[in-house]
Amino acid sequence: MADIDAKTLSLVPPEGLVTLTHVIYGLHAFSAIAGIASPAFIVTAFLSGWPSIIAVIINYVKRGETRGTYLDSHFGWQIRTFWYAVLWVLVGGLLILTVIGVVVGVPLLIIVGLWVIYRIARGWITLNDGKPMPGP
């Protein structure tokens, strides 16, 4: 039987799932840092780096176990961050293919990279406080 938090009246997730969620944020952060430390854009390293790809697969595999807990909001946050970044990289990449679009595409990729770092940091800090992420 699952424990229920007396204050929030929501299920308390197992400690192992909380640790796994920290690991997933760590995998995403590792990919983003690899983008900072290399000539690649942050967002392209985030999306194409194995740590982030593994993290999003874990998100999908374990998401059912987080239902009813505050971790569900974190898993949704991580999944949305990944897929929105994919969308904006495609838009930026298509813009870069045009001569005029380079002026817009490159800054767009830089902004999306900073947005990814923000999402990872905000989510991880909120997880560390034991709170859910705001709704979509």
Structure explained in plain terms:
The chain is an all-alpha fold. It has one domain. 73% of the residues lie in helices and 0% in strands. The protein has 5 helices and no strands. α1 packs across α2.
Low-pLDDT segments:
none
In total, how many domains does the architecture comprise? 1
Question: Cα-atom Rg, whole angstroms?
Answer: 17 Å
Q: Helix fraction?
A: over 70%
Question: How many alpha or pi helices?
Answer: 5
Distance between the ends: 29 Å
Quick gist of this model?
By secondary structure, the protein is mainly alpha-helical. It is built from five helices and no strands.
Supply the key terms.
single chain; 136 residues; mainly alpha
How is the topology of this model organized?
Blueprint: H1 15-36, H2 42-48, H3 50-66, H4 71-96, H5 102-128
